[in-house]
Amino acid sequence: MSTWHLVDPELRPTLQSWTPSTLQADALPALREQRQQAALQAMHLDDGLSLVMHEQHIAGNSGEPAVRVRVITPTARRANRMGILHMHGGGHLFGSPEQSLSLTRPTAAHHDCVVVSVDYRLSPETRFPGSLNDCYAALVWMAENAAQLGIDASNIGLMGDSAGAGVAAALALLARDRKGPKLAFQNLMFPMLDDRTVVETERNPVTGEFIWTRENNAFGWRALLGCEPGSVDVSPYAAPARADDLAGLPPTWIGVGTLDLFLDEDMAYARRLMRAGVEVELNVWPGAYHGFNSDPQASIAQRARETRQNWLARFNR
């Protein structure tokens, strides 16, 4: 069914410029390059924020390549800032720290905190657990080098969007299970959590028409897993919704729109977190599709951005 009539009216102008497309493996390199070049050009524009940025290559897991991170720090030097490890979105197929600066730079400035954004390896060139290993290496590095980064090692949290939010949720599970760095929070915008959404038989009739479709979701999961989504042996560290035990995870914020393909899996995960005794705030925006929060003008997108930042402010001590 068409869900255009359900879209928030202020979001419709942006959506009208969207051209539906089905992802193909041979088109990925060119699309990645196009998006990255646009992001690099935008980096030269002055956003008026007093921040210092630098990139660094840190040691990966044993036998794996170095991991590139972009570190964003307020200009004024200070110790014991809140630290945020950020994972970009892109369906496990696209994205980079540079393509997420419209989120990470304002976040660092607004909270006077340090943001470390991870350039994790993408699929299908790198299957699971490559991206998760990269992000875990970055988390350990961030905790071990907290003093040099000006971070309070006891106040490090995770932030991600879409596939990056799914990686963040998996990273929270992995850090808990490995008894790694203790996390203060996880901030997840429309997280990609469950490969079984691809094969569900009772589909939500109003989700997944726009931006991130069911077809693209299937492509993204196949690229990450190297097998069919819904297979019995998929790891919960790839698809966090498959985890049996969610106890002991940090306070969690989840945001999603009612037209987003991930609506049902996100609400189910939030409910399970609550039942496991985890502090959760779930925000659901009516008439919002996947990625709606990037709209520069729509009031619902502005409210979503503000709500997300207001929740983060609770941890900025």
Describe the structure.
Residues 84-292 form the Alpha/beta hydrolase fold-3 domain. By secondary structure, the protein is α/β, with parallel strands linked by helices. It has one domain: Alpha/Beta hydrolase fold, catalytic domain (Rossmann fold), CATH 3.40.50. The protein has 9 helices and 8 strands. It has an 8-stranded mixed beta sheet with strand order 1-2-4-3-5-6-7-8, sandwiched between helices. The radius of gyration is 18 Å and the shape is globular.
What's the short story on this structure?
Residues 84-292 form the Alpha/beta hydrolase fold-3 domain. This protein is an alpha/beta fold and 317 residues long.
Key structural traits:
317 residues, alpha/beta, Rossmann fold, 18% strand
SSE topology sketch:
Blueprint: H1 12-16, H2 28-42, E1 51-58, E2 67-74, E3 81-87, H3 101-111, E4 114-119, H4 130-144, H5 146-149, E5 151-161, H6 163-177, E6 186-189, H7 214-225, E7 252-257, H8 263-275, E8 280-285, H9 299-313
Parallel strand pairs: 3-4, 3-5, 5-6, 6-7, 7-8
Antiparallel strand pairs: 1-2, 2-4
Average pLDDT number: 97
Shape-level CATH architecture: 3-Layer(aba) Sandwich
Low-confidence stretches: none
Total domain units: 1
Query: Would you tell me the structural class of the helices and strands?
Result: alpha/beta
User: What is the level 1 CATH name?
Assistant: Alpha Beta
In N-to-C order, the SSE pattern is: HHEEEHEHHEHEHEHEH
What is the name of the CATH topology? Rossmann fold
Task: State the helical fraction.
Answer: 25-40%
- What's the overall geometry? globular
Strand order of the largest sheet: 1-2-4-3-5-6-7-8
The gyration radius over C-alpha positions equals 18 Å
Strand content: 15-25%
* Count of strand segments: 8
- State the helix count: 9
Domain Alpha/beta hydrolase fold-3: 84-292
Keywords: Hydrolase
Protein name: Alpha/beta hydrolase fold-3 domain-containing protein
Organism: Kosakonia pseudosacchari
